[in-house]
Amino acid sequence: xxxxxxxxxxxxxxxxxxxxxxxxxxxxxxxxxxxxxxxxxxxxxxxxxxxxxxxxxxxxxxxxxxxxxxxxx
Length: 73
Hints:
- This protein is mainly alpha-helical.
- The protein is built from 2 helices and no strands.
């Protein structure tokens, strides 16, 4: 069996899967109603706020640890 450079057996199913995924995304997006869009936007804002709060808490904890270590030595 000779495989040319353009025909690779492992690439064919991935290409098909990629096409199927993009098609299903397009179909799913066209079937969304406005309430779903509002709910998704609210969810995204909540996730962003949560990420910001987590980042602030992490930086604060790190700063406190560094100050504590600095004062202890």
